Amino acid sequence: MKATSPEADPECDDERITRRAQIALAATCEPGEPGLADLIDVSSPTSVVATLLSGRPPHMRIPRARAIGARLADLDLDALLDRAQTLGIDVLLPGDSTWPVRMQDLGPRRPLALWSWGQANARLASVRSIAMVGARACTRYGDHVARDWAAQLAHDRVAVISGGAYGIDASAHRGALAVDGITICIVAGGLDVLYPRGHEGLFADIVDRGLILSEAPLGEAVRRRRFLTRNRLIAALASATCVVEAAHRSGSVSTAYHARDMNRPVLAVPGPVTSETSRGTHRLIHDQVATLAADIDDVRLAIDPIGVAPSEHDAKDDVSTQLREVLDVLPTDRSHHRGVTKEEIAVRSGHRLGIVTELLASAVEKGLAHEDHEGLWTFQD
Description:
3 domains, alpha/beta, 381 residues, Arc Repressor Mutant, subunit A, Rossmann fold, two-stranded antiparallel ribbon
């Protein structure tokens, strides 16, 4: 890409060009590049591209600005997009109808774009979802729990989200697929170089019946640190996170902390005290990062604290769809997380502030929500 490219014209307001500029930035930055998403919001993708190509320091600090500028200069954006089209891979951007709005909860480290391959709608599928993660070297006990719980939840039309790795990840994906449910796999590398290679058949099944997402552009090989940055996306996309098995230090534990930091419910499955793969889950429970998942009903409650039915026809209460979407944002009292403001609820639920105010008033009348003296809201379970 050259400084004379349309994507580097700060005055350009053509939607197609600004879209290409944002894809170019997403393809050349590190995942979760601090400050870059905020910089794009206050200026524009084309303006940011122009600044980075020029070598001038942007007015907001971007740690790897020079490196991104160099990568932009080497980028063949047309070739990248042509390859995606050939493979049937889409690029999702914030504001698209299929963009999962929960990703915005990552704040300054939110993704600029997601590469998407499959049949499911990322935004709709993730409305009722569970991230099920755990050890690669899992035990038979962990494999059984992940497969069985994933199958039951997928049968209830809950999307099962994981990372496509060996062990618990694969068991969760396979459990959902076994009942023709939806599963979403978020990988650390490009969608045309999926890892691990031994899961080629599993990935093909997920594309046919679910979705594979990545923050990395096509052709990007897996790097170790990208597994950790990828985990924040798994936590952000899901309604709740369940760690089935994990060693004391593991990527699955980092996923739990990301979910906790976003006020999402976190659960951990207990196991034998003699098992190394239970040390991480026990520590999460001990440190009150996660609540104990004694059975699958604990997971169901975390996803649907008011017993939300998959459709209006199945609902057994008088809670409207809009109110459910607002209540789904609220942390529970027993989760030990701070409440959320009306403004945060509006952003996360996708409803206008005025509508949120009315819905919260209705929730208070029904005994479903509580506002503290600081104006922070929690769900009353």
